[in-house]
Design brief:
Layout: H1 3-29, H2 32-48, H3 51-54, H4 58-81, H5 102-120, H6 124-135, H7 140-147, H8 151-174
């Protein structure tokens, strides 16, 4: 492969995956600057990989490297601070709603708050699987590769997580 085509391949990967990786890393780390550093490192590692080593599973490879680097950063912070949560629910930069109807905006805000509160009660692994599936759009197979689980285990985590979320979100409405 020529240097030009390799560079173009990396540029295309950055264009397609930079924003989803930033969202993912920021949710794991809770810090936009650290997330940018982790994503930059992820793409630097991609540059060092032979293309044929990641072709066919690029998304899985990128999210795995990003996750591992994020966990490395968290472990380092944990050693320094002794208490850093694994998952934080920081909204990505610029994620503000611009709904014209204040009533609809308020209802959406309440629903979002209930969803975040319910999501925060789930085990960290379930939270991460749900975020990879619904925020980042990864397939069950890709999530299995990123999380080092079987595809069926991913399916069980998603099914049980959604079932629990529905029950916890609907419970306050029924009361």
């Amino acid at each position: 492969m020529s240097e030009g085509s390799a560079a173009e391949w990396v540029r295309e990967a950055v264009a397609r995956y930079e924003a989803p990786l930033l969202r993912f890393a920021q949710r794991l780390l809770g810090d936009a600057d650290e997330a940018r550093d982790v994503v930059q490192d992820t793409f630097l590692r991609l540059c060092a990989q032979p293309r044929d080593a990641v072709d066919g599973h690029l998304a899985e490879w990128l999210f795995t490297v990003c996750r591992n680097r994020s966990l490395d950063v968290l472990r380092k912070e944990t050693r320094m601070n002794d208490a850093t949560p694994l998952l934080r629910d920081a909204p990505p930069d610029g994620a503000r709603s611009r709904e014209p109807d204040p009533h609809a905006a308020m209802e959406r805000l309440e629903d979002t708050g209930r969803m975040r509160a319910a999501l925060g009660t789930l085990p960290p692994r379930t939270q991460e699987v749900l975020r990879l599936r619904f925020h980042e759009g990864l397939s069950y197979k890709e999530i299995a590769g990123v999380m080092q689980l079987t595809v069926s285990h991913v399916g069980v985590l998603i099914h049980n997580g959604l079932k629990t979320l529905r029950a916890r979100i609907d419970a306050p409405r029924a009361a």
